[in-house]
Amino acid sequence: MFSIENIFLIGFVVFIIAILMLDMLVIDRKAHVVSIKEAATWTFVWIGLALAFSAFLWFFGDMVHGIQNYADLQAVAAKYARHLTLDPNHFEASVQSYRHYMTISYLSGYLIEKTLSVDNLFVMMMIFASFGVKNTEYQHVLNWGILGAIVLRFIFIFAGAAIIQRFEWVLLIFGLFLVYSGIKMYLDRNKQEQMDVQHHPMVKFLSKYFHVYPHFVGDHFFVRAKKQGNTYTLVEHGQHGLLCLTPLLITVIVIEFSDIIFAFDSIPAIFSVSLDPYVVFFSNIFALLGLRAMFFLLAAVADKFRYLKVGVSLLLLFIGVKLLIHKYVEISAVGSLFFIIAVIAISIVASLVLKEKPKASENHE
C-alpha cells in the first residue's frame, strides 16, 4: 500500500512529465532557433512555477509527508530537521514552523541548483559546438536531456537520502568533496574548456558496441543503413538495413553522461540545506525545468558574467564547510538563503560593473 508521501511524489512526477510532454510534443514540436525574447518569456514562466510551488510549501508543506498530528510531525522532524524546536502543546504553530523550514530549504536548494546549472550550461554549449549540432536542434536535444536528467536525479537523490539516513558520516565526505570542487573551480576559472569528441569515453564506448551513422539526419535518433567497408549508406523506408545511432542521439547521451558528473556537485550541495529527499527533489526538478530556456538566454550573454565562476566556487566552499561543521555549528536555513542570494547578486553585479582588464598582449599593441 502506498504511503501519502509516495502518492504525493507520484502525483508530482506525473504532473512534471505531463508538462514536459506538452512542451516537447505540442508547444515546441517544430524545430526552430529560439529567440532571446522567447527564452526570456519561458525562463520567467518556469521561475513563476517554482515560486508558486514554494507558496504551496509555505501554506501546505505538511501535506507532502501526510502530517496529521503531533506524533507524525515529530517523526518527520526527527528524520529531516532535528534542530527544529517543536511544542507539543501548540501543534499548529509547530507545523507552521516545519512548513516554513521546508520552504526556505526548497528556495535555497533551488538557487544552489540554478547557480550550479549556469556553469553546466557552458559545458553544454561546448558539447553542441564539438558535435556540430545545428542550433535548430538544440531544443530537441535539451528536451530529452532534461527528461533523462530528471530520472537520474530521482535515483541519485532518494538513494543518497537512504544512505545518509543509515550513514550520516557520508555528509563529511560530501563536504570534503565540495570544498575540493570549490577550490578546483576557482583555480581553473580562466581555463578554456575543450572536448575531443573522438576520444570522449562515452563516444568510444558507443562506437565500439553500436553502429553509428556518421552524419546528422534531421531530428532522428536512429536510422537504417547499409555498411560497405567503413561507409554507411541510408536505405529507403521499408528496406532492411542495420539499425544505427545518429550523432544527435550520441549528443543526448553525452549530455546525460555530463549530468551524472554535474550531480556529484549539485546533489551533495542541496543536501547541505535539507536532508528531506522530497524537498531536495522538488528544488532540483524545478531548477532543471527552466534549464532549457535559460540555456538560450545565457548563450546570448554568456561572456558578460565572467565573475560567476568565482561566485559558484565560493558557494561550493561555503556549502562544503557547512557540511563539515554541521555537528558543531548550526547555520540557519534563513542565513544560508541570504548568503546564497548575496553571492549570486554580487557575482552578477561585479560582472556587469567591473571592467575586464586588458590582456598583456593588448597593452603592447
Structure, briefly:
68% of the residues lie in helices and 4% in strands.
Q: Can you characterise this structure?
A:
With 365 residues, the chain is mainly alpha-helical. It has one domain. Helix content is 68%, strand content 4%. The chain has helices spanning 4-27, 36-60, 70-80, 91-131, 138-166, 170-187, 201-209, 247-271, 277-289, 291-301, 308-325, 333-353, 360-363; strands spanning 222-228, 231-234, 242-245. A 3-stranded antiparallel beta sheet has the order 2-1-3. The radius of gyration is 23 Å and the shape is globular. This is TerC family integral membrane protein. The chain crosses the membrane at residues 6-27, 39-60, 141-163, 169-187, 242-264, 279-300, 307-325, 331-354.
